[in-house]
Amino acid sequence: MLKIGLVGFGFMGRMHFDNYLRLMEEGRPVSLAAVCDPRIAELKDGKAGGNMNTAREVYDLSAYRLYTDLEEMLANEQLDVIDIAAPTYLHAEMACSLLERGYHVFCEKPMARHSADAWKMVETANRSGKKLMIGQCLRFWPGYEYLKEVVDSGRFGQATEGYFYRGSGSPKEWFLDEQLSGGCIMDMHIHDTDMINYLFGKPEKVSTLGRNVLPGSGYDIASTHYYYKDGKVINSQVDWTLEGDFGFYMGYRVNFEGGSVVFDGSTVKVNPNNGPGFTPEISPEAGYYRELGYFLDAVIHDKPVDVCTPESAAESLEVVEAEMKSADAQGEWVKLV
């Protein structure tokens, strides 16, 4: 039985909590043993806002051991896996320390505040022999998994153009401090950057236009072009200033030599050039549930974490940093090594 400690009980911590409960109810050999957050007394009785709804507004944590200090939790619990859903700027130091002490680590995205620290996480995981996976959940989201299969199979030939979009209202608290979160590009846009890196490989260079709206938050709106030698035109846009009743949206449109694939956040539509369009059946499950199940299965059966390797997540962070550098230079192309 794998024993899990959850660090962080904000929106993502609650999302992970919900899915651990589901995995336990389904009979997976895992047990969420403890929850740690410096503000746990306050957070357990309040609602945490996010892009999607958590399973409940107020959580009954009476069945779990609660901690305000990570070291106290580690000293008092016999844990196998630590789930880091803490703020971005804490990820690298926390993950490296835990890996060195023999814990498997699931860490929320972005992997770290700086790519140099992300590569330290990679090195530490390799040296420790423990498993590390980053929560780049789109790799497990059925609508994006379908696109990955189309790209890899070559069913419609090579991709010629792609557009990815993600938008929502503004987050709160530390997210709006660029020094802590990296702003909208690093915290939110990294989902699409990571998917582009996963689908098509690391681009040779990027050009980004960005705009700041909220004081101190970095770039709140951005649009990036990704250059590939084969000439495909790839763009992604992000905006976390969409207030009012907008809510949240993510989607893509990718054109191939023999057809196009479009995702509106819930439904995939395939449009072959030489045949009628159709809507393939995809799983209704969210990527959060599927990524946690995948990681725990890898730990239980000692299998490699192939779908989302730490190295690939660190590469995606390097691309994001190049985008931020380009935005600082008003869209100048920035080459990637």
Descriptive account of the structure:
This protein is α/β, with parallel strands linked by helices and 337 residues long. Helices cover 35% and strands 24% of the residues. The chain has 10 helices and 14 strands. Strands 13-12-11-7-10-9-8-14 form an 8-stranded mixed sheet. A 6-stranded parallel sheet has the order 3-2-1-4-5-6, sandwiched between helices. Strand 1, helix 1 and strand 2 form a beta-alpha-beta unit. Helix 1 crosses helix 9, helix 4 packs parallel to helix 5 (115-128) and helix 8 crosses helix 10 (310-328). The longest helix is centred in the last third of the chain and has 19 residues, at 310-328.
Key descriptive features of the protein:
337 residues, alpha/beta, six-stranded parallel sheet, eight-stranded mixed sheet
Q: What is the overall number of helices? A: 10
Low-confidence stretches: none
> Which shape, going by the Cα principal axes?
globular
Euclidean distance between termini CA atoms? 43 Å
Q: Assign a percent range to the helix content.
A: 25-40%
Overall pLDDT confidence: 95
Q: Strands of the largest sheet, in order across it? A: 13-12-11-7-10-9-8-14
Global structural class = alpha/beta
Describe the biggest sheet? 8 strands, mixed
Tell me what portion of residues adopts beta-strand conformation: 15-25%
What order do the SSEs take from the amino end to the carboxyl end, as H and E?
A: EHEHEHEHEHEHEHHEEEEEEHHE
- What Rg is obtained from the alpha carbons, in whole angstroms? 20 Å
- Can you count the beta strands? 14
